[in-house]
Amino acid sequence: MKKIIILLGIPGSGKGTQAMRLVENYGYVHISTGDLLRGLQGRTDLDEELQEAFQTMLEGKLVQDAVVYRLGFDAIRDALAMGKKVVLDGVVRNKAQAERYHTFFEEMDVVSDVQVIEIALDDDESFDRLKARIASGYQSRPDDTPEILRERIKVQGNAALLPIKEFYEEHHLLKIVDGRRSMDDVERAIQHIVS
Ligand code: AMP
Questions:
Q1: Could you say which residues bind ATP here (predicted)?
Q2: Taking the model in full, what pTM does it have?
């Protein structure tokens, strides 16, 4: 089983849910840059870069790549050093990040341990799902507001995902599962890929 799973998918595609299932089923460590950023809330010791990133996150925009690396690299290094497998949830969201993480894995000599999985969903479905999530109050988050929703889908929708997918396709690392299916079906499809 691969040590590093990179989950791709637009907001609402179910990356978080599926990451949790990989944790429960196979003992992966869940690394989500969104969670790491939300974890900054209320901290009084943040430097300017992290304060700015937190604000950017609240606006539904992508935070600076440097912050993603600052949070992501340490978390990945620590988990791998402890002999754990990692599932990266939303850690790669533009082509520059895809390239930089790839270099990072090359430097660690673990590229052959990487599997990229996209949970595919179209932008309209994403919008409907996130709207429903807001209406239900379930899993509500500081950036789950109707105004921010359009922005998140604009900057993090399928148009933004395409260059990332192309990068991983070129490296023969990408597998795609149909995110319109039930959570259990998506889980089974992912299990099939990873085991
Ligand atoms: P998520 O919980 O994965 O939906 O992420 C919440 C927010 O954190 C996103 O809307 C972005 O503002 C920010 N974020 C998380 N991961 C990244 C990343 N890899 N690159 C840029 N911004 C990110």
A1: 12-17, 133, 181
A2: 0.93
